Amino acid sequence: MVYNDVLSSTIFVCAGTTGTYHHPAFKVFEVDGGHEDATWVILDATAYSTNLTEANVEGGFPVYTVRYNAQDSYDVKSLTPTSMHELVLNMVTEEGLYDQHYWYVFVIP
Question: Which sequence ranges form a coiled-coil region, renumbered to this chain (predicted)?
Fold first, then answer.
């Protein structure tokens, strides 16, 4: 998050590979856009990855599966700077929330 005396924006890091396994990964962002009253706010993000070991067996191919979905996994309504700030504060106070985030980002093969 970016603070210029006040919370001003959120910076998202998009996965190119998974944490410890280094499998290909990507995120798809859902944005409130494309209509007359669009706010262009990022509403949600879903992370996908594939297992290279399985994809590289003879006759194999990459199958991308969902690693996590931000709204479902973190119980947030959107990915606005305010929502992300609240999520970070919750990671400090809610037992297991940061560990869950760490699992999604670094551990899932």
Answer: none
List strands edge to edge, sheet with 65-69: 25-31, 42-49, 65-69
What's the structural domain count of the chain?
A: 1
Write out the residue range of the structural domain in which residue 24 sits.
2-107
Report pTM: 0.82
Q: How far is the C-alpha of 64 from the C-alpha of 74, rounded, in Å?
A: 21
pLDDT digits (tens, 9 = 90+) for 42-101: 999 999 999 988 999 998 899 999 999 999 999 999 999 999 999 999 999 999 999 998
Mapped onto helix, strand or coil, the DSSP state of residue 46 is: strand
Supply 81's token pair.
């700077």
Structure tokens at 91: 């990671």
Look up residue 33 and give its amino acid: G
The DSSP-derived string for 76-106 is -S---HHHHHHHHHHHHHSTTHHHHHHIIII
